[in-house]
Fold this protein.
Amino acid sequence: MSLLEIKNLHVTVGGHEILKGIDLTINAGEVHSIMGPNGSGKSTLAQVLARRQTYEVTLGEVLFNGKDLLAMKPEEAACEGVFLAFQYPVEIPGIGNTYFLRSALNAIHKYRGEDEVDAVDFLPMFREKLKLLEMDEKLMNRSVNEGFSGGEKKRNEILQMAVLEPKLAILDETDSGLDIDALRIVAKGVNAMRSPERAMLVVTHYQRLLNYIVPDFVHVLVDGRIVRSGGADLALELEEKGYGWIEDEARHVPASV
Amino acid sequence: MSTAIQQVGNYLDIFTEFAKNAAGQKLPWLRRLREEAFARFCETGFPTTHDEDWRFTNLAPVARTQFAFAKRTVTLAKTVLKPWTINGAATRLVFIDGRFAPELSDSAEFAGVQIASLKEQIAGNPGEVEGHLGKYADIQRDAFCALNAAFIEDGGYIRVRRGTVLEQPIHLLFVSTETDIATMSHPRNLVVFENESQGTVIEEYVSIGKGTALSNSVTELIAGENANVSHYMIEREHRDAFNVSTLRIQQARSANVASHSLLLGGGLVRNNVHPVLAGEGGECLINGLFVGAGRQHLDNYMYVEHAKAHCSSRQFYNGILDGHAHGVFHGRIIVHKDAQKTDAKQTNRNLLLSDDAQIDTKPQLEIYADDVKCTHGATIGQIEENALFYLQSRGIDETSARRLLLLAFASECLDRMRPGVAREHAERLIHEHLVSFAHHRSRTPAADQKERSWEEVG
């Protein structure tokens, strides 16, 4: 059984169809990348998989571990093992980072019928992950993402992912706006999490990130459809030639049902 | 006018009866204060919504109810009051339907601190209170202050002597009980912090049972030079209770006063906070949280007077309103002619959790000095959908996520409290109270559009 099976997914936002029939299968252990020009529906796909309710699924189905993902609330999807690293992480004044992360971890443990993690057990594991992402522990005493730089926010996303250990990690433009040092650190954190049990879906506009997180498969999303799939070299081709040629090509492909 | 006369008719009988046996009635100054105050109340009656200071609060339910003093027979076991114990408080004075209950109160003594009921103090040593009692709360401007002053008799009397520091808070607990009549009480508190003293006073209003009751309290808080005072007003009465409270703060040079209001209960609540910065270098923090549901009406009226130069005041009020609750924040700042270099700030933030909840927020700046800094701002919004989704996407269920976001909003107020017993008490109450506000409710898209905010510098 595949970890994630997306079949003919159609999604509408405010009356506009954004995703027009996506088919994608991801197996455990694989890293897939979704690339595409602005407005092609990349982020919509990521958010739908994380179960944001503002998107309306009009057709199709998504199975996660054989279960109907589209019937899940965001928290259920998270507890089942879906993680979204946000393109724009949200600042939440008044809720401490560490408290938030431990609450999240315990919510997931509770859902799975596992014991809660107390502060004593949490801290050593947490510190190890902080080190991996070269983050200052002091940052964790602050409110969630409050006053964080762009790079710190993105690293915080990967830190959360490292602590929550999802089965499917979706990275939504995690590379956008990062300088090369921050990019290396983020990639190091992500690569440390690659494992045969875990799959990743890396959504990006630029090929640069894929130098550091080398995908097994690359899919090109244009106007709500996957118009081409290939290996890591497809990303290089896109980098070289841009999206124009593939968009032109896509116009000549008849729309799927 | 006929309504005013009818209202007064009822109170006239009660006042005549009260004046026969009231404590200290033989003291000319006290007698005069009561009579003048009652005369003033007779002149004005209860304010109406035509009065700018009462624009958002309709007092008709108070005006048409025939209140009377509770009979003197209520006796309570001490264990009944256990839920309202503050662990770590220095001492507690309990008032039942406005009257001091020595058998339910603590009798702890502290060096340099005098704690008594006002009635005892008037009977035993009236000279100590004469200099302050009724000197600050304005019976001319405010009908409720007048009514309270007419019926001055009991309440808390606290005097903290020069240089004395009392670490733990003094707890004044006002309990209204259920009787077969509509009862009223007019608690009068006099709190004097002499120069260089420090301490915390918690006024807490609770009810046992569901009886119709009006609590109309006035607290005069005098902070001497360099005194450092925290005052807490906690309203936790049942949801049909009427509660009007007035905190009148008089600050001397370099005094530092923090007023924290926590309005959780009550049906019709009016919270007046009126500090006068009467000495240079004074600082006043006016901090509050009001949380309403059902048909609760929570009106916060701030009247911040800068009378001398180089003082700062900070008003921060956060409101959370659900159901058909109606909140009011009316923040007046008056900067007198001599109060140059005044630094006054006012912020009111509100979360509306339902389509029918309502907030009226109104700043009012009156500035007669020319070198001052005054800013005010207000926001009205909902729980942020982005933040909610972010928390949920990490596995936290929607109800818990909502509760976390409400707590985060409320914690802005908690963070302004000095760490210690009183703050922990407030924190516990807020945590318990917000649980019932966290359940999911669907909102119409139109309601999500009505977010607005403003900020101005004047």
Summary: Chain A has one domain: 4-251. Residues 65 and 96 of chain A are 32 Å apart (CA to CA).
